[in-house]
Amino acid sequence: MCVAYLMCRLADTVEDEAALTSEQRSLLYDTLLAAVDDPGDPARAEEFRRGWPVIPADEYGRLIEGTHHVLAAYAGLPAELRGPIHTCVREMIAGMRSVGVVLYQNEVAFVCGDMTALEQYCHHVAGTVGVMSTALFEARLAPRGFAADAAWREDGRRLGLGLQLTNIIKDCRVDAERKVSFIPPGFVDWAGSAYRLAPRRKGELFGCCIGHLDAGLRYTLAVPPFESGIRTFLLGSLLPAIATLEVAAPGTETHPKIDRTKMAEIFDLITSHTAEDQMLRNWYTAHRKRTLNSLFT
């Protein structure tokens, strides 16, 4: 999972770097894809590193400088584990390349024209990761008697969508400050030049996100309780997501985030009660209910 995350993060770093021209970004995508196809050739990693006009002076820059380590670790994985990662990175990059601006309002570039486009965007950048993670989990679970089915695999993909939508909702005002919106224009109201979610459409937006997180809860609790590592990994994303939506629902904070007390509560829950399905379900349901109530108060 660590190697898989870093491979995806390399693609994300290309997408997120605002200083790149479209030509430079396209070239970096090409060289990264070539490296993913042939990770055993050190020249591929070096070509990707050299393709950066300026390597960022932050943790992402350190990742770029260490691309050869990531690719070496990836090349050393068994073929049945490399396959899902390879597919994910290729589909993710294809999706990133398809993203464009559909509309400008008040100098803000809207990336998604409607909810269908938003869900498609979330699939490209996070649903693909859900599919990949599910395949990696299945490789571990199947020899232990776990019988995966199509519904469970789809719930894994939907967990990725829910986590991405949570981040988009949480960061929507921050994104607008840098002149971009992933939330469709029909879900935004303007008070002069101030960006905010339209109260009349918030229920639809949050409802879509919560529906995907509900699928993520089913997915997580279907994992056998003795697989505490996988459960802890999944709960560590799912529970903060529903708690974050509760903070974001009133729409009163520009930077909604859960506090340290809540994070400590979540940490205790996922470390001490990982196998207690009803306790986990009750905690999630309580935050889900408060989130929905906050939308209409």
Give structural attributes.
single chain; 297 residues; mainly alpha; 3-stranded mixed beta sheet
How does this structure look, described?
With 297 residues, the protein is mainly alpha-helical. The protein has a domain at 1-97. The chain contains 13 helices and five strands. The strands form two sheets. A three-stranded mixed β-sheet has the order 1-2-3. The chain has a two-stranded antiparallel ribbon with strand order 4-5. Helix 6 runs antiparallel to helix 7, helix 8 runs parallel beside helix 11 (228-248) and helix 11 (228-248) packs parallel to helix 13.
- Report the sheet-strand fraction: 5-15%
Q: Spatial order of the strands in the main sheet?
A: 1-2-3
Instruction: Give average pLDDT, whole number.
Output: 95
> Number of helical segments?
13
Structural class: mainly alpha
Our Rg estimate from Cα atoms comes to 20 Å
Largest sheet: 3 strands, mixed
Portion in helices = 55-70%
Give the total of beta strands: 5
Condensed summary:
The chain is mainly alpha-helical. It has helices at 2-16, 22-37, 42-50, 59-65, 67-75, 79-98, 115-141, 150-170, 172-177, 199-222, 228-248, 260-272, 277-295; strands at 103-105, 108-110, 180-181, 188-191, 194-197. The longest helix has 27 residues, at 115-141.
SSE topology sketch:
Layout: H1 2-16, H2 22-37, H3 42-50, H4 59-65, H5 67-75, H6 79-98, E1 103-105, E2 108-110, H7 115-141, H8 150-170, H9 172-177, E3 180-181, E4 188-191, E5 194-197, H10 199-222, H11 228-248, H12 260-272, H13 277-295
Parallel strand pairs: 2-3
Antiparallel strand pairs: 1-2, 4-5
Helix pairs in contact: 1-2, 1-5, 1-6, 1-7, 2-3, 2-6, 3-5, 6-7, 7-8, 8-10, 8-11, 10-11, 10-13, 11-12, 11-13
